[in-house]
Write a structure and sequence with these properties.
168 residues; mainly alpha; 64% helix; 0% strand; elongated
Length: 168
């Protein structure tokens, strides 16, 4: 919509086309876009006017006595939402600090508990140097070493296949 039409729109919708400049009417005759938009605004304006109260004056419509007090009582009587707790600034700060501490603790635990070095049970050196477990040997070995049976053998086989198929 062009500026000339926009500036005169309010007067036109109030129903006083005689107060409008001649340029406005000339522009509506030339510009189809402005004329179409003006017609849609006029239809909306008529729809809104049909929704007016029968008295026609908004100042005549008054709410019953105590209306605002009843509304405020109903608002205050509603239970607080669980999500309103997150809007509290102190709680949000505490939650952020607790989350950061938790992430730091979990990260520290994961870094320090990860096996590293040659003592790792899955490293090729340990897999190849451990003696094979047999039924006779399992009676002499401690219980902590007996639990690695099939998985330990599978790891040995995988390392041996890797070594056998290695090409320079």
């Amino acid at each position: 919509m062009h500026r000339l039409t926009r500036d005169s729109l309010e007067k036109y919708l109030k129903g006083s086309p005689s107060d409008l400049p001649a340029e406005f009417h000339a522009h509506l005759g030339e510009c189809r876009e402005c004329a179409d938009e003006l017609k849609s605004f006029q239809a909306q304006s008529q729809l809104l006017q049909s929704l007016r109260s029968p008295q026609g004056n908004l100042q005549d419509i008054e709410p019953r006595a105590g209306f605002y007090a009843r509304v405020m009582e109903r608002i205050e009587a509603q239970p607080a939402s669980i999500w309103s707790v997150f809007l509290d600034r102190k709680f949000g700060f505490r939650l952020a600090v607790a989350s950061a501490v938790l992430v730091a603790l979990l990260g520290t635990y994961l870094i320090t508990s990860e096996p590293s070095g040659p003592e790792s049970a899955s490293s090729p050196a340990v897999v190849l140097t451990d003696p094979p477990r047999t039924a006779e040997a399992s009676d002499q070995t401690p219980a902590s070493l007996q639990q690695d049976g099939p998985r330990q053998q599978q790891q040995r086989n995988a390392v041996l296949v890797d070594l056998a198929s290695y090409h320079q």
